[in-house]
Amino acid sequence: MALLYQRVTVLIFCILLLLPMAGMISGHRETVSMGEKRRLASLPSFPTDLKSVQSFPSSFETYFNDHFGFRTPLIKLHSLYKVFLLHTSPIKKVVIGRKGWLFFNVNRMIEDYLGVVPYRRGELEEVWKLFQKRMGISHYIGSRYL
């Protein structure tokens, strides 16, 4: 019984290893990633000179990474794993808060809101100049800047 269990485990492992390759060979080719909002790398041409021989491995790796079999479902599965099991955001610019709320965090936005990291003297002067500029524009157009 133990031998059968080991063989089935090895068989499942081999199938899982070969599944992405089967997905690549199946013929379904995307040219644009809608989730990433970018064009996927195209298959590089076969190298004919020394310069193209040197650049071919990195170009092919980029192509392979973009067209890896079942890439989109695997990315979604990885994101779900990070959110629901690890309770972390798969996106560096987003922080998951209490009760599943998502917060955009670029340029210390959350730290600034919480007052955790104080401004340095130069940064504070820049903020003051921007504040004065906005007040001046508001006054010029006849409104109050709050």
Describe the main β-sheet briefly: 2 strands, antiparallel
The sequence of SSEs as H and E is HEEHHEEHH
Rounded mean pLDDT score? 89
Radius of gyration: 26 Å
Q: Which residues form runs of ≥5 with pLDDT under 50?
A: none
Identify the overall geometry: elongated
Helical coverage, percent range: 55-70%
- Beta content comes to 5-15%
How are the strands of the biggest sheet laid out side by side?
1-2
Alpha-beta classification: mainly alpha
DSSP strand count = 4
* Distance from first to last alpha carbon: 76 Å
- Number of helices in the DSSP assignment: 5
Describe this entry's structure for a reader.
- It is a single chain.
- The strands form two sheets. Strands 1-2 form a two-stranded antiparallel ribbon. A two-stranded antiparallel ribbon has the order 3-4.
- It starts with a helix and ends in a 6-residue tail after the last helix.
- The model has no long low-confidence stretch (mean pLDDT 89).
- The chain has 146 residues and is mainly alpha-helical.
- The longest helix has 24 residues, at 2-25.
- Helices cover 56% and strands 7% of the residues.
- The protein is elongated and about 80 Å long.
